[in-house]
């Protein structure tokens, strides 16, 4: 059938085959990455097989190998996806000059990441605790330059007398440790926290406490409204 006739009658352009294939690819990769994150976070790299991932993703094993030739390729991609999402959250440092708003937004995004992708956070933590055997080069080549940019912004705030003196690198470490704690130690939070409150609710409480304490420690005014987390 002539697609030009269809277009004239319906007013709708036919979807190119390449666009359809791209959509299928994107959907499959998303399924595989989600399944891989869960499997690796639960069983570790050695304890996970591509067959495990394929079953959880409800896809043939051949599909997993089509998109990711080896288990190591897939493992690295999952780790990088988590780190890149975290780095994107810090873009506010480069676009927002107000320290209170920048820090509040960054902390909020990092806490939200713990709620939305706790398994990715735990997987990254386990990898680094093990000595970062798979991501050491990535951390050096990608994460370190990004961190230097963030520290440079914090240093500029200090030169402009916008915040109290602080070691910018240590400040970033503190934010990472506090926000990722909600995901990495979720079981401990559930055991030690208020039994009447869900884990998600306790993360909300921790988020508000963290924003308030950190901003006050830097000599900043805490906004009347602290942006909440969407769960």
From TrEMBL:
The keyword DNA-binding applies. Residues 49-68 bind DNA. Keywords: DNA-binding. InterPro entries: Homeodomain-like_sf, HTH-type_TetR-like_transc_reg, HTH_TetR, Tet_transcr_reg_TetR-rel_C_sf, Tscrpt_reg_YcdC_C. It holds the Pfam family TetR_N. The keyword DNA-binding applies. PROSITE patterns: HTH_TETR_2. It comes from the Bacteria. Coiled coil: none annotated. Residues 26-86 form the HTH tetR-type domain. This is TetR/AcrR family transcriptional regulator. It comes from Kistimonas scapharcae.
């Amino acid at each position: 059938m002539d697609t030009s006739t269809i277009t004239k009658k319906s007013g709708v352009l036919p979807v190119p085959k390449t666009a359809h294939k791209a959509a299928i690819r994107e959907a499959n990769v998303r399924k595989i990455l989600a399944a891989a994150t869960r499997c690796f976070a639960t069983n570790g790299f050695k304890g996970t097989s591509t067959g495990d991932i394929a079953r959880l993703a409800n896809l043939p094993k051949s599909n997993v190998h089509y998109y990711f030739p080896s288990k190591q390729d897939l493992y690295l991609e999952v780790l990088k996806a988590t780190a890149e999402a975290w780095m994107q959250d810090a873009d506010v440092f480069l676009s927002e000059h107000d320290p209170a708003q920048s820090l509040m937004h960054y902390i909020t995004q990092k806490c939200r990441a713990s709620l939305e992708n706790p398994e990715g956070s735990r997987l990254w933590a386990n990898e680094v605790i093990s000595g970062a055997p798979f991501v050491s080069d990535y951390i050096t080549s990608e994460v370190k330059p990004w961190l230097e940019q963030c520290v440079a912004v914090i240093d500029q705030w200090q030169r402009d007398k916008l915040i109290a003196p602080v070691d910018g690198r240590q400040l970033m470490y503190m934010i990472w440790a506090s926000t990722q704690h909600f995901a990495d130690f979720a079981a401990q939070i559930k055991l030690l926290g208020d039994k009447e409150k869900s884990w998600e609710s306790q993360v909300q409480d921790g988020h508000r406490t963290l924003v308030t304490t950190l901003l006050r420690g830097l000599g900043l005014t805490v906004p009347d409204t602290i942006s909440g987390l969407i769960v």
